[in-house]
Amino acid sequence: MSGNFRARRPASPPPGVSYIPTMSSQRFPHPREEHLDADEKRAAASKGFAPGKTRNYPPGGINLTSGEWKLLIVIVLVACAVRLFRLSKPNSVVFDEVHFGKFASRYIKTRYFVDVHPPLAKLLITFAAFVFGYDGDFDFKDIGKIYEHVPYVAMRMVPATLGVATVPLAYLTLRALDCRATTALLASMFITFENGMVTQSRHILLDSPLIFFTALTVFLWCGFCNEDKHEPFTQSWWTWLLLSGLSLGAVVSCKWVGLFTIATVGVSTIYQLWNLLGDLRVSPRLFMRHFMARALCLIAVPIIFYMFMFQLHFLILENSGEGDGFMSSEFQHTLGGRGMEDTFADVAVGSTISIRHVNTQGGYLHSHPHNYPGGSKQQQITLYPHRDDNNNWMIANASVDGDPSWKWENAPLQYILPSMRNEVSAYGMPGFVGDANDDWFVEIEKGDRGKRDSESWKRLRTLRTHFRLRHALTGCYLFSHKVKLPEWGYEQQEVTCNKNAVKANSMWYVETSWHPNMPADAPKVNYKLPGFVAKFWELQRVMWTTNAGLTDRHTYDSRPDSWPLLRRGINFWVKDHRQIYLIGNPMVWYLSTVSVFVYLAVRGILILRAKRGFRDFDNTKVVKYDTLCGFLFTGWVLHYFPFFLMGRQLFLHHYFPALYFGILLSCGIFDLLTSTLRPRVRLQIAAVLMVLAIWNFQHLSPLAYGSPWTKAKCESAKWLKTWDFSCNDFYDSVRPTPHLSFPNPTRTYFFFVVLKIRNTRSNALHQLIARISTIGGAADGRPAVAVHPNAPDNAAAANNNNENGHAVVVNKETDTMVAEHIAEPGRDIFAGDVGGKGIKSDSIIAQQREKEEAKEEEEEKEISSVGAAAAAMTEAAGKPQVQAQGVGEKEDVKAESTSSMTESESATSASASASASAEDKEEKADETAAAPAAEAGPLGEAEVEAEKAAAELFPDAA
Questions:
Q1: DSSP secondary structure letter of residue 145
Q2: Do 105 and 139 touch, CB atoms closer than 8 A?
Q3: Where is this region: Disordered (predicted)?
């Protein structure tokens, strides 16, 4: 299968012969004039071509009208809105941000680490963090940990931006595959509103860069195939081919899953070369030119790019870090802080040495002053990965050690030879000779591989001799393996004696050696530091081994057979009664899966028909769609089935590259099925599919964005029993934001009157709004309550004093917690006033009533009567409660209202307002009640009256 789509390839011109374009050698897409459909005629007309004048294609065969470029801009804007919405939420660590954020910290601190993925995507994220001033001090230790001094939004912007860029690439790819603009639009919308891809692209993860470079590679390769059909070996031909190779290097430098993309392009390349080989008009020399060009750009260039990424990786991680233990001793000594001075090459009786394990990342044989809790209860011997004085051992002569007449310091040097008995013990005391239980035989297994040190095969030589230690009495070998001791052993690696020890795990070598009697000119050795290529190959082996070793089960892992059916997702984050759960868009997901089976069925039928003599493949339309869908199907197969061969831990997100090919395949089939329809009908069908995809996306979007949700909606969204997101983490109902509420139209009107004077009475406004908005309690009779700002988050009670000096108990299940001086229905925010005496809303009404009775200010009477009349009118008419919303912007004043009141609450509030009016003003209230609520009084007059009322009620604010 390939990305080119002609039934037969035209002959490439012989070398030295100029290329003469003909009708049969047009750049793809190249429909014959007599077979132009309505879409192609419209595209030609939009470019100003007369009928039949459509052969004007830019490099790569991508033929976009000016209207399509404008459409692409709209598509990108929609993708930005979907993927960048609430990108800063949550402000805590999500899922594998634990790992990849930590790796960014290691890069910035230049401390070496080992990861199973190549470095490109991590380097991009690190670059964004570095540009925005991240110092690398945050540890990304736990999911849910709040970010502090971390530009996490900038780091998330990298995968989010690449996720946005994937959307137009899907459009351009299908256009390069000669699909219609409607089909390309449908594919871009499917990618835009695919819940799983949206979720994955909004966090510090590697899958979004992987999908982007996969999409980029497919697009560039299709462009190259179109260019190759037009004219090979031109400048644009080389450009498309070289860019395809660079993109292949980038995709495999993000994750090794990119190898499947290389395989997809490789299969397409082999298909191309096979067709060239069968074309008798292509000479062998020309065929070799095609072969060498593809080998250079599609094999050499990706390898060079991939290795260059690791060169950057090594240059940045120049210092010792937590990943040292995975690497060989030679590798470790290329890192800063791990250098070692030259050490004596020979080892003799009396030498102080450090012994390293050949296998299991080369830990040091180690003993510390702590005993085993059971067994012999003697001093512990372990394997420790770091340098330490407890790694030093002295070689003693077991036969004479402890004899006061024998001094090894005065004896001639006695080198360690095979079968010598030497003590390796952590038992005894000074002057204690010990016994045969302390003795070990030295068995030399191999020396230096080259001819640099032939003596390393004859006697123990530092760094160059690998040996085993066999216990003198039991015959067991000193042995270590990848098993850590419990806490009493400080989780260091276990060291035991094993009669049936695996040879690789019982091999040791001496790293350092020192002896006081060694002559000054004694030969010394040191590690031979590896070059880049040696370090590169060693790291690839470590990555492969580590990746294969990830076999532990995870709560949300899954196997490949469940991915096409979207049987379960991944829980990313749960906190504050919200959840982020990776799940796909069911409509897009299942449509892509069905398309795979549809292609298989149709392709099988075509093969059977061909066997029966039908000539379907002589039809250019059949050949076009068979080759198009075959290329996309090959990509899906090669990105999906290899996971069945893996025994490692797998997750749903491993299916995303295959899903991308599946979505394009479903749109390719849509293009075929609607090819005979009128453009308007085709667009209408596509619109219906897009609406369904958007509805499915919206239905599950709270799991993508971590938005508030309810248990009921969560349960209704579980279309499959295997979808295991936790609905118990959500509230029974979405709790409203703290707000202001106005029980009747009078308060609503009076609130906006107060807003008009905010520029001259800011302090008075703050108090006035709070007092006006807290009139009355809850509908069920609960009094108004405020919560002190210093109350604990889970306070079962808040020590706020009410007007009687009694503590007010706050129940979070029935009482909504609000900040001090932010009003809410059913709350008295002045219960804990500084003055010690609570001020309730009815006290304000009482003051107004006194002023009205005293007739000190005629304007105040009018305001009170207007308010009472409007309230009485509302109660009498039984109209629904008015909702209001307002914000006062002055210094620390900030309030908003999003609430609504029930009819009973409206009636209660209206009654309270009516009782506040003076009895001698009933006649005036009746007159006002006859007018609509909106005509309760002119705004200008009310503003003046409100200023006067505020000045008298709150003289300090003036």
A1: P
A2: yes
A3: 1-36, 845-958
Number of alpha carbons in the 13 Å side-chain half-sphere of residue 588: 30
Mean local confidence (pLDDT), 319-339: 87
Mind listing the pLDDT tens digit for each residue in 774-802?
Answer: 434 444 444 444 444 444 444 334 334 44
Count of H-run helices and E-run strands, the chain: 26, 16
Distances (CA, A) of 662 to 187, 578, 592, 723, 852: 10, 31, 5, 22, 77
The CA distance from 481 to 502, in Å, is 9
3-state SS class at 313 = helix
Burial of residue 73 (CB within 10 Å: 0-12, 13-18, 19+) is: exposed
Beta partners for residue 86, in sequence order: none
Question: Distance between CA atoms of 657 and 654, rounded to whole angstroms?
Answer: 7
Q: How far is CA 370 from CA 352, 363, 923, in A?
A: 21, 19, 96
| Separation between Cα atoms, residue 609 and residue 626, nearest integer Å | 14
Structure tokens at 126: 């690190």
Longest dimension (CA), the chain: 127
Look up residue 26 and give its two tokens. Answer: 């047009």
Which residues lie below 8 Å from residue 169, measured CB to CB, with a gap of 6+? 212, 215, 216, 218, 219
Q: DSSP letter at 280?
A: T
Strands (E), 157-213: none
pTM of the model: 0.69
Residue that has been written with the tokens 């790291």 in this structure: 539
Q: Which amino acid is at 46?
A: S
Instruction: Count Cβ neighbours within 10 Å for each residue of 652-667 and write b for 16 or more, e otherwise.
Output: bbbbbbbbbbbbbbbb
According to DSSP, the β-strands at 439-446 and 466-471 are antiparallel
Q: Which of 8-17, 824-833, 853-862 is predicted most confidently? A: 853-862
Residues 289 and 233: beta-carbon distance below 8 Å: yes
Summarised one tens digit per residue, pLDDT across range 658-679 is 999 999 999 999 999 999 999 9
Residue where the block lists tokens 């012999």: 376
Token pair for 607: 């093969």
Torsion of CA 517, 523, 525, 531, to 10 degrees: 170
Q: Are strands 392-394 and 352-357 parallel, antiparallel or unpaired?
A: antiparallel
Q: Which residue has the tokens 């290097």?
A: 249
Vertex 468 angle, CA 463 and 474, to 5°: 155
850-861 as b/e: b if 16+ CB within 10 A: ebbeeeebeebb
Is residue 395 a contact partner of residue 416, using CB atoms and an 8 Å limit? Answer: yes
Tokens 């979720």 correspond to 199
Q: How far is CA 195 from CA 155, 363, 581, 721, in A?
A: 21, 46, 10, 19
Hey, what are 177's tokens? 């595959």
What tokens does 639 get? 């990105």
**What's the rounded Cα separation, in Å, for the pair 421 and 443?**
10
Question: Cβ atoms within 10 A of the Cβ of 85, count?
Answer: 15
